[in-house]
Amino acid sequence: MYKINKLENSITKLPEKTFKELEFTERKHLQEWIAKNPSCLGEDLLIIQKEFDDFDGTKERFDLLALDKEGNLVIIENKLDDSGRDVTWQAVKYASYCSTFSKSDIEKIYIEYIKDENYKEKLCDFFGVENYDDIKIENQQQRIILVAANFRKEVTSAVLWLINQGLYIQCFKVTPYEFNQECFLNVEQIIPIKEAQDYIIKMAKKEQEQNLINNSEKQRHTIRLNFWNKLLNKIKEENFELFSNIGPSKYNWIGAGSGFSFCQYEFIFNKDCVRIDLYIDSKDKDKNKIIFDKLKENEKEINDAFKNLIWERLDEKRACRIKFEKEYDSYDETNWNEMIDFMIENMKKFEIVMKPYIQKIKL
């Protein structure tokens, strides 16, 4: 930090100090400065408690508790010249304690802090509403702000990892200065970098969402592989030759040739149903529709032999299909034996019914 000398058109570097050198303490000084002027942390915050320790079964206390404009609780932990090693763990622990607070709990905490009958008016002023009932304090997300002159590497590493896991956490570096017996304080957000904060938070959320998608996909793949193994084992037991050389798949379908290049018999495993079908795909949309139409010329005879088939020309798509399905909670393994019996029994019948009509197709 520099002092500007207008007369000499120059700047003079201000001596950087430590809190210890200036005899400032954490609770008596730094905590009070933030409590009286929370906007020094770069946004409008409403301090609702200091030295809060009203947790069941623990005597722990944290420095400051605040609300942001979205109604989220903000846990503010202050350190002086050194963040120490455990500040991240402390703050996360306190955030977990606060995660159970209801709106009425938060109101009670605030009333105890300000000791003012006009607390509702003050809350309305902060949230910019006229009606107290319009205030939304849902406490769906707990934020963390860490304040210190210097942050240890293990702290910044943990904070960056937590941000990538979707936790809203910030680090502010506070630096005291002294010049001509006057003291100054610089407050600077260092994690995430202020200019990139929105981008970093969005990227962290995107990564978190992608991880959830990937984990869900892996789970689906495992379920499908287990189901296909069970179905194919039953097929071998029954000597059903159509699928005898087919292996399990992580996808929701397995297929076997019909003897005609562009038609394939398929088992389909969806979350809410299973089905058998004849899938028509020659990679040429027009050719697929011709094949489908040739089979459909025999629709009455085929439907008489196999009831409740669904014929899907799928004009907006390249492929076509003829299918038979049944609803199940397919991810419930207690349904699997019934599902497998349904699929194998009907696929055997379906192949017998469709085979002579497929053999007649000529392009």
TrEMBL record:
InterPro entries: DUF4268, tRNA_endonuc-like_dom_sf. Transmembrane segments: none annotated. It holds the Pfam family DUF4268. GO terms for molecular function: nucleic acid binding. Residues 223-357 form the DUF4268 domain. This is DUF4268 domain-containing protein. It comes from Campylobacter lari.
